[in-house]
Write a structure and sequence with these properties.
Blueprint lengths: L7 E2 L10 H6 L22 H15 L22 E6 L5 H11 L5 E5 H11 L1 H8 L4 E5 L6 H16 L3 E6 L17 H8 L2 E6 L18 H9 L4 E5 H8 L7 H4 L5 E7 L5 H16 L4 E5 L8 H4 L4 H16 L1
Parallel strand pairs: 1-7, 2-5, 2-6, 3-4, 4-5, 7-8, 8-9
Protein name: Cell division protein ZapE
Keywords: ATP-binding, Cell cycle, Cell division, Nucleotide-binding
GO cellular component, one term: cytoplasm
């Protein structure tokens, strides 16, 4: 490989490592949600479920608001009794992660954690199940973003983990594009694990959030594809940019655990991808989704040549069990391409 130009790095040359202790310390909201609050959540008046969700989640995080002054016989309005967990079910781009981070920031607790589903399963993989339970037990809140059950192993591990934590008093807040009883549907033999899935769902009150993808409101829905000259000029405009062939990066992602993707992009101001093509392998596509999630969380622009990034997942994939994951990734790719 030719040496990188000044300000250019190759992600394919990086072999990031992350200890279990570092994983635990990193379980906080992504930088873009450092200041997320219920007050800064802009509910769309066209979709009343957004304001309703905000009010319910405020109660979940900090308790019911004080009763309004009234006459002698006035009563405090009844507040729905929430389960140990709340589960935000809705399409991508309706502000679920913002609300999840708002819960994290608003809940007055010393020990609380925020991470993606894959980060929690990776923590179990790095530390072992029992040590992970011991470390998380006693925490007031566990926030789980992008809750998905893509294989039976994850189903069993997360069911046991969350069950033990809820029994010890931990409260849960999760987001997903799939209702809890439908997790795993279309991905593996979910009927073989219905008991575990239903047991997990019993810990959550589902809160539906409708709306339009806010990331698409400013764009035409398509990511630009640059020619070679435009691409090089674009990368030169950033302090430090990565520059990798798309195929080379996809192959490299198979050799790096998804929990380490965030470390893969450390110190980078923008992501460059050459010769983007359509993905036809499901495993490759899912790894790319996990990579896109970390890039989006880090608020990094993406510049690319080849196929427009919104066309990277084929029609067959968009019609399958991972449809919502791919659509979310497309939404994030388009936003990153214009960032």
């Amino acid at each position: 490989m030719t040496p990188a130009a000044p300000g250019i790095v190759h992600l394919t040359e990086r072999q990031p490592q992350l200890s279990g202790e570092e994983m635990l310390a990193s379980l906080v909201p992504p930088p873009q949600f450092d200041d997320a609050t219920f007050e800064s959540y802009r509910a769309d008046p066209e979709f009343p479920s957004q304001e309703e969700a905000k009010e319910l989640l405020t109660t979940f995080a900090v308790g019911a608001p004080p009763a309004k002054r009234g006459g002698f016989f006035s009563r405090r309005p009844k507040t729905p009794e929430l389960k140990p967990g709340v589960y935000l079910d809705g399409g991508f781009g309706v502000g679920k992660t913002h609300l999840l981070a708002a819960i994290f920031h608003a809940m007055p607790a010393r020990r609380k954690y925020f991470g993606s589903f894959i980060e929690y399963t990776a923590l179990v993989g790095a530390l072992g199940y029992r040590q992970t339970v011991d470390l998380l037990r006693g925490s007031a809140l566990l926030c789980i973003d992008e809750f998905e059950l893509d294989d039976p192993g994850d189903t069993m591990v997360m069911t046991r983990l969350l069950g033990e934590l809820v029994a010890s008093g931990t409260r849960l807040a999760a987001t997903s594009n799939t209702p809890p009883n439908a997790l795993g549907e279309g991905r593996f033999a979910a009927q073989d694990f219905l008991r575990e899935i239903h047991a997990m769902a019993d810990s959550f009150q589902t809160i539906r959030i409708d709306g339009v993808d806010f990331r698409q409101r400013s764009f035409d829905g398509h990511a630009p594809s640059l020619d070679a000259t435009e691409y090089e000029a674009a990368l030169a405009g950033f302090g430090t940019a990565s520059d990798d062939g798309f195929d080379a990066l996809i192959s490299h992602l198979a050799r790096v655990h998804p929990s380490r993707y965030i470390r893969l992009i450390d110190g980078v101001d923008a992501i460059g991808l050459r010769d983007v093509r359509q993905l036809t392998d499901q495993s490759e596509a899912l790894r790319f989704v996990a990579f896109v999630d970390r890039v989006y969380d880090a608020e990094l622009p993406i510049r690319a040549t080849g196929l427009p990034l919104d066309q990277v997942f084929g029609d067959d994939m968009l019609a399958g069990g991972y449809r919502k994951k791919y659509l979310r990734a497309i939404s994030r790719l388009v936003a990153s391409a214009y960032a």
